[in-house]
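Cross-check.
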Amino acid sequence: MTEPPSFASRLAWWRRRRGLSQLQLALAAECSQRHVSFLELGRTRPSRDMVLRLATTLEVSLRGTNELLLAAGYAPVWRESAFGAEALAPVREALGYMLTQQEPFPAVVVDRRWNVLQANKGAISLIEFLVAPLAPGAALNLADALVAPDVLRPHLVNWQQAVRHFLRSVEADAAADGTAATNELLQRLLGYQGVRELIQAAIPPADAPPVLPMHFRKDEANIRLFTTIATLGTPQDITLQELRIESFFPMDEETHELFRSWGFRGATSAVTAPLK
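Predicted model, tokenized:
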């Protein structure tokens, strides 16, 4: 079995990932360059306070901070609750309110790896219109649904542009959090047919719109949507820090009217229904 990375190697990895020299990190963390050097060589054991200070300076996530603490021989300080835990009930209620306010347009709550945790009627209606009705309690991963060849791709007119943009965001996630799970997601997405070639950036056209819409087409319907992504402002739980709320908005009147008609008709699933 492979030995888990030491604190020294983790610290050096995060410093290089953030593009800092030992001196720059030392100045930002208010310690000496010699101390940072000794920590990275494993010649000095950091105090618990120093681990937390360095993690904050390097903008390491709560999950990554726990890993640094464990590597240094200390207990984790940040908890990771199940999304359905009683302690998170006020947050789930707030998220449900946000998703309801977005009706009839789609909105979803996803975790760091784009697994859908909550969805409103607009989101469920869109998925069911483009793909198929969702089974009760079905798991849905938005990243796989977008990038895989047989889910949304057949209906996404500008699939190449949309996926290229999305892959860059997943690459940024992998660089930011440094977790194996996010890197595994990235590698899985790159493994889908025709995806790896999209990494090569294309020059955007001179008449590119202010935001890149997702243009879906099925039968006679054209659906053009742009998205916004929100996060919680003051998370102190790993699960909450990794949540994202993605809201979809119509780019034109045709899309607006289509979702209004779906809203009046209603959807087969409950508002803010958990999908896993």
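The beta strands are 107-110, 116-119, 214-218, 221-230, 244-250. Residues 7-71 form a domain with the 434 Repressor (Amino-terminal Domain) fold (CATH 1.10.260.40). Passed to J.P. for a second look.
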